[in-house]
Design goal:
By secondary structure, this protein is mainly α. The protein is built from 3 helices and 2 strands. Strands 1-2 form a two-stranded antiparallel ribbon.
Length: about 100
């Protein structure tokens, strides 16, 4: 299996939308390495998993695209945790002793 970056943009779209490539396809992208790891990032505009060689995997994970996604996920969790904390405070203050 080819590294995701070893596929042309058209081939990448096919993999993302259909989940496969035709039998006997020839990779037309930049990377000549085979896939070594699978990466799936929640909220990714191209839902995965996608398969990369180690070098491309590291580059993708260090990319701004992934950093923004991770930052958004962290912000969502912060908001959710704050809502839970506030609810717990309200619940504690409304409990009356026997």
């Amino acid at each position: 299996m080819s590294c995701f970056n070893g596929l042309s943009p058209t081939q990448q779209v096919r993999v993302v939308e259909w989940g496969n490539l035709p039998i006997g396809y020839i990779p037309e992208g930049e990377c000549e390495n085979g896939a070594a790891v699978a990466i799936e990032v929640w909220g990714d505009e191209k839902p995965g998993p996608r398969f990369y060689c180690l070098g491309c995997a590291v580059s993708y994970l260090q990319s701004n695209e992934v950093r923004v996604q991770v930052r958004n996920i962290i912000d969502m969790y912060k908001v959710a945790l704050e809502e839970v904390r506030q609810k717990m405070e309200r619940d504690v203050t409304t409990v009356t002793p026997d």
